[in-house]
Structure formats: structure tokens, C-alpha cells
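Q: Convert this sequence to C-alpha cells.
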Amino acid sequence: MFYNTVMNSKKINYVLIVIWLFIVVFTMFHHEIWRDEARVWWFVRDLNYKELFNSIRGDGHPYLWYLVLLPFAKSGFSPFVMQIMAVISVFFSVCIFCFKSEFNLLIKLLFIFSSGMLYFMPVIARNYALIPLILFAIALIYPKRNKSPFLYTAGIILLSQTHMLMWGACFILSILFIIEQIKNKEKYAMVTFLIFIIYAIVSAYIYLPVIFLKGAFFHSHIAKNVLSPVHLSIFSDMKNLIMNMLICPKVYKYIYISSALLLIGIILKINYKAFLIFLFSTGFMLYVFVHIWFEGVPYQKFFLITLILVFCSMILHSKSKFDNIMLQISLSIFLAVSFYVFNPVKLIEQEIKYKFTNTKEIADFYNKNIKSNKKIFLVDISYVLDDTWKVFLHSIDGVNYKPKDDYVQKINEEIQKRPFAQYLIVNSKYRKFINQTNYIPVIKINYRDRVSVYGFNAEEYYYLYKIRS
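A:
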């Protein structure tokens, strides 16, 4: 009795949430907004509604996160608001998980303090932040879905607008719900069926041309890979993906896969519908990971598999005490192994200790010390960080060069064209050439080990040099 009381104590949940919030907010204040975060804010701030609609279509992400940020960006708020909105969204998902789920204290600890819930979702302010909130809201409605069909339908539609990777989950949730409604001859069965059909047609009109013709995710060859025959094996693809991603000894990779399979097996035993949700959701994500994004699968995307597993565990309500115990044990093992291989402590430590690109620091220096944009120019404006500069600076003089033997001479020629130029911004691949000159380094960079998590390389670090005294 005492054990159960402690496990379900509201006071314990409050303590967990407060600690979680403190760590996340503290980390957020040390986080430097980078490319994919900045891109969204730049879109909603500077583009008109027609341009925004067309740009989002070609950007490869649905609309919800843009709509959440739009009123703040249009009203002239700082990009910092974007980080606050991400934290708020994940905060409410943590509250739902702690107060409304039937998991024990160990599972709550392992999940809310995992790398995804503690770092990737709330600190990196992207559309991923909305996913756990809407997923867990759907989990709350799930037992009463037939009594609240429109609320449940709205939840699925909103989930589909968070990220393309959720489309597999939305598809199977919709199909299972429609079958249930028709089979049980529910009052609004045909209405909900028509809502899903109309929404599917509208979504196909908006997104399919982008995916199949224009090439989403910045891969011009996506159509070839999407449309070509694929021999998809869920377990082999998952195994290969994990083996390539996990930065840990090989034995722990197999332990991770085994713990996931154990949990999946328990879910299948308890409820085949929950298993189908996992199967379709994860199968679709794996297809995208392996055949579209190729090697570009950072942990923020990969954590969605963990999120789906937790969601499937939340909607299980077995009358068997043995099944419930096995579910708690298998989920605890899986989350414990995940905690080890995706170490949140190390990620947060590096976030606090190191800068990421110096883009914000250089922009602050520019805004504080330089009144005319003619006094500073950026070498090599690439898509990688171009959007980040646009968030912090409305205008900046820039050129594009490839690192050749005559690179320094070309830069000197550019400087001669700018009689008022005083500062030069270069990235890492050009730094070795600039070091051959007498330019004075003003802002340097601290390399961060975690950069490999996102698939970035040292060329994306930026330096500021003074041209003349």
C-alpha cells in the first residue's frame, strides 16, 4: 500500500515537473538558435501570407508550428519567443504524462528526463516540440474516442500537421477509428469518415506535388528514391539504422534492439491495435529515414520512435495484472537502455559549455558596435547557416568563394571594393587561408563534440576577423 501511494503521489509528480522545468529553462538560456530553428522564424516574420504558404509547401514540413509562431513573429517579438513556445508545449506534455498516465515512478523518471523530453524536444525549438503534447492528448481521449469523435478526429488532424514523420501514425489511427465507427454503427460514423476523406484530399493536393515533383527535404533526387521499388524490412532497417547511429559499444546496441523488441512483443500480446499503431507509425518513419533522409537522421527525429512506443504503452488498458506488470518492466528496461545510449547529461553539459556556430555572438557584436552594414561582410553564404543570419541581421554584405590557392587575393580584392569594410566573417573551411593574413581574430570558436549528433561538420563554425585597425 505504501509503495503504491508513493508511486502515485501528486507531490512526487510536482517535484519531478519542477526539476524538469528548471533543467530545461536553464539549458534553453544557453542554447544558440541555429539553422532549422531560425528558418521558421525568418519565414513567418518576413514573408507575406501567400509567400509563406508557398514556401512552407516547398520546405517539407506541415503548417502548425508556423501558425503557432506567426502572430509573435509578425508582431515584432524576439526569436526567443520560439524557444519559450517549445518549452511550454513540452511542459504540458510532461504534465499529462506524469499526472494522467498509470506508469510507476521509475518510468516517469526515465522518460521525462530522457534526451528527447529533456533536450531535443523543448530546447531545440522546432516543430517536434508539438508532437508529444498532441500525442499524449490523443492518448487521453483514446478510451473515450467513440464518445468524443470530433475531438479525437481534431487531435489526429493536428498531429498530422506537426511533422511529416507523424503521417504513418495519423493514417493508422484514422483507419482504425473509421473501422470502429462503422462497425459499431456510431451516430457520427459517416461524418467523421467524410472529414478524414476531405482532409486527405486537401493534404494530397498541398503536399504530394512537393514530395514527388519538387523534391522535399532539399534532396533533388527524392522522387527517384520514393518511387523506386523498395524491399522494406522493418526489423533489418531498424537494426541497421540503430547500429549506425548509436555511439556506444556494439553490445549495448544489441541490448537496445532487444529491449525494444521485448516491449513491442508485450504491446502485441496486450492489444493488437496498439501494435498496429506502432507498426505503421515506425514503419513509415523507417521508410523515410532509410530511403529519403539517408544518413541525415539526427536523434531528434529518431526519438520519435521512442515517443510512439510510449504512446502505444499509454493507450493499453489490460485487465490482466501480469500483463500490466510485464508492460511496466519492459518499458522500464527499454527507457533505461535508451537513457544510457542517448545520454542527456552529456548533451546538456556540452550545450552549456560550448557555443555552436558563433552566429548569434557575431550578430550581437555587429548590432552593438557597427552602425553601417558596409563595414562587415560574410564570406561563403551557404544554405547551412544563411537562414540563421537572416534572423539576427536584416541585411549583410556577402560573397561566395571556393577555397582555392588565390582565395586570399580574391578576398583582398573584395575588401578593396569596400573602402569602409572593417570586419570579415569566415567559416572554418576558409579560416586556414585567413590565418595567412594579418587580419586580427575578434571572435573565435569552441569546437563542440556533439556536432556529429546533427550531422554537421567543422565547416559550419564561424569566425570574426578585424581587417584593419
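Residues 134 and 159 are 6 Å apart (CA to CA).
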